[in-house]
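User: Okay, second chain of the day. Same drill as before: sequence in, structure tokens out.
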Amino acid sequence: MEGKIEYGSIDEYIASFPPEIQQLLASVRETIREAAPEATEKISYQMPTYALHGNLVHFAAFKNHIGFYPAPQGIEAFKKELSVYKGAKGSVQFPLDQPLPLELIARIVKYRAEENKRKAAAKPKGAARQSK
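Assistant: Same drill. Structure tokens below.
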């Protein structure tokens, strides 16, 4: 695909940015790893993604912000604290000119991990994945 970058790993994704952005992305990555150590890393939608019984969170760098995607449930559960940031139903934008709220990110990741674990435990054993 001409002009479109395809990332093979989160390391590759982070390395593609200038040093100051790499530092921010690395701190988000480390925060997620500490909050959900059992989650697996992958690239999905060309963004760093963490999965635990399904997608947990995504994050990405943009010109003026770090995008964080904890699904609509993650946004809703922390709506009050996230209200100071731009966002949408399943995303929030952390401006590059402000400190990253790493403690808040950690709490959101832990919330999403618990939510995914509960959903996985509630599924009948041996049930095939069903579409909604």
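The chain has one domain: 10-113.

User: Thanks, on to the next one.
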